[in-house]
Write a structure and sequence with these properties.
8-stranded mixed beta sheet; about 220 residues; Rossmann fold; two-stranded antiparallel ribbon; single chain; about 25% helix; flavoprotein; binds cytidine-5'-monophosphate
């Protein structure tokens, strides 16, 4: 029997980057390490939650004691997320690629003298927005992230409204902060109560604090 304030609650966490194929050997990716999402999954588990962890191809070691679903592309992540519903709460920490190559080449693109390949892009599904706006299976609490480099609170507040999620954890990822890929995070929690600035702390502490807040929200 699992004890803790989240015992009996099922929560979903997305994490890591996505890889969007160009051809069988090449892909588009981003620098997400999966560190913050992994820490959040572990913190929710530590409070007793049953955690479904949907991760792209991230460096971070997979958390123990959670259900891990490995995906590669945004479309696979969307399918895995929808299949994991219903959940009580969902945290979207993945850095999902905004675009994918419109027509993936089924064989390797050959190097041809004098002819450069041209890639055309198409938009990926916005998993957070879709889940936050589900008419029936919407989780009670939907949490998104917003990585911003300027006007953090204003941009994140607008993003929260646009996506329809309950909370946005906004972080300043300008290069000078050293947050991207680093051990610390400095976040602002945006909710319908406004913006709450958290001090800079280790990603594990951000995760513990968020998990605690999620527990309080689900108990309310
Ligand atoms: O719009 P933007 O990518 O800045 O929003 C970030 C938030 O939306 C993150 O929580 C991220 O996990 C989520 N997201 C998503 N699916 C996408 C793009 C972003 O779930 N295609």
């Amino acid at each position: 029997l699992v004890a803790g304030p989240l015992a009996g609650k099922r929560v979903l966490v997305t994490s890591g980057p996505t890889h969007e194929p160009i051809d069988p050997v090449r892909y588009i990716a981003n620098r997400s390490s999966g560190a913050q999402g992994t820490a959040i999954a572990a913190a929710l588990r530590d409070l007793g939650a049953q955690v479904v962890f949907v991760t792209g191809p991230a460096q971070a070691a997979r958390p123990e004691g959670v259900e891990v679903i490995e995906v590669e592309t945004a479309r696979q992540m969307r399918a895995a997320v929808l299949a994991a519903l219903p959940v009580d709460a969902a945290v979207f920490a993945a850095a999902v690629a905004d675009w994918r190559v419109a027509s993936e080449h089924l064989s390797k693109i050959k190097k041809t003298k004098g002819a450069l390949p041209v890639l055309e892009f198409t938009e990926n599904p916005d998993i957070l927005a879709e889940v936050a706006q589900l008419p029936e299976a919407r989780p009670r609490l939907v949490v998104g992230f917003a990585a911003e480099t300027d006007d953090v609170v204003a941009h994140a507040t607008a993003k929260r409204a646009r996506k329809g999620c309950d909370w946005i954890l906004a972080n300043d990822v300008s290069p000078a902060t050293g947050i991207m890929g680093g051990p610390d995070n400095a976040v602002v929690l945006i909710s319908d109560e406004g913006a709450e600035v958290w001090p800079r702390m280790a990603k594990a502490e951000v995760a513990a604090r968020l998990a605690q807040r999620i527990a309080e929200a689900l108990m309310a």
